[in-house]
Amino acid sequence: MVEQFHTPSSKDVLPRPRLVRGRFAYSSTDDTSSNDSTMPLVTDDRLFDQCGIRVAFTEREGGVSKGCYSSLDLATHVNDDPGAVEENRRRLCAALDVGDDPLVVPRQVHGNHVVTFTSDRGIAFDEALNEAHEGADALVVSAPHVAAMLCFADCTPVILVAPGGMFAVVHAGWRGVVAHVVVNALNVLCRAASCSALSCNAYIGAHIRSECFEVGSEVVDRFRAEFGDAGIRDARHVEMGDALRADLMRHGVDNARIVELESCTHCSNDRFFSYRAQHGVCGRHAAIAIRSN
Fold first, then answer.
1. What letter would DSSP give residue 270?
2. Distance between CA atoms of residues 246 and 219, nearest Å
3. Which parts of the chain are beta strand (E)?
4. What average pLDDT is seen over the chain?
5. DSSP 3-state assignment of 283?
6. Crossing angle of the two packed helices 240-250 and 181-193, in degrees rounded to 10
7. Burial 200-216 (b: 16+ CB within 10 A, else e)
8. What is the DSSP string of 29-44?
């Protein structure tokens, strides 16, 4: 179970989570260009306005990648043109006003390891960065001006936010779901923020939904062993979002503070990348968060 801490004062209480799709402007060529373009991002503006924390889920639109990677591919490991990915990341950072702040992208390994960033520079930052590059599926950030980004194409993106400005960005494929990677990140986040899970917000992004997610009986059995009937649709289909919601609630998160983008990456392959829909050759959209103050 998540360790319990003092209840935050009223000034630290987060606004109830809400996800809204908006368009964010970025410089289309370079910093001196007068021509601006926009990309769609799903975010919580009230959280940003009140706490200075920007959480965002990207889509496919807004980049320069071509073909099966079109267009806002943010991954460096999928054989896309490296220059295109670099430009796509630059555009995303410009849209979110990341500026010169470090962008941390771990090597994702479908595990449950959590790396914590307590500084935006120096030895502590470098050590955490090396640890993330060795392999991690969750980043907890307690320092301002550190952008944390993880990449997805059917797996479940989760962003957790604690009072006081700390947050976690988590990659949860089905292996990560049953390994409780999100709860691991929640535990680390609550300890770092000295708060209870009850006061945290949880944002679940687009992922492959149960109707498109056919799995073997062994996967269904593992979900049932960890979550009971939560997430089990039938003998061959599971819903990762429902399992994650049940896991978060069991470990203290208020259901009213869990918000989900109810889109299927497979069904909406024009909007999101989907490993299954694109037969294993595709780009990656992202979950990203940063605190500006």
1. T
2. 17
3. 20-27, 36-43, 53-58, 103-104, 114-117, 138-141, 147-152, 156-161, 167-172, 201-204, 232-234, 237-238, 258-260, 285-291
4. 94
5. coil
6. 40
7. bbbbbbbbbbbebbeee
8. S-TT-S-EEEEEEEE-
Task: State the DSSP string of 231-244.
Answer: TEEETTEE-HHHHH
Q: What is the chain's percent helix, strand, coil content, to nearest 5?
A: 30, 25, 45
Name the CATH topology of 17-291.
CNF1/YfiH-like putative cysteine hydrolases (3.60.140)
For the segment 148-158, the average pLDDT, to the nearest whole number, is: 98
* 105 vs 139: CA distance, rounded Å: 9
Residue type, position 162, single letter: A
Cα distance between residue 176 and residue 179, in whole Å: 5
* pTM of the predicted model over 0.85: yes
Residues above pLDDT 90, as percent of the chain: 91
- Domain extent listing, the chain: 17-291
Percent of the chain with pLDDT over 70: 93
- pLDDT band of residue 3 (cuts 50, 70, 90) is very low
Q: Per-residue b/e over 41-57, b at no fewer than 16 CB within 10 Å?
A: bbbbeebbeebebbbbb
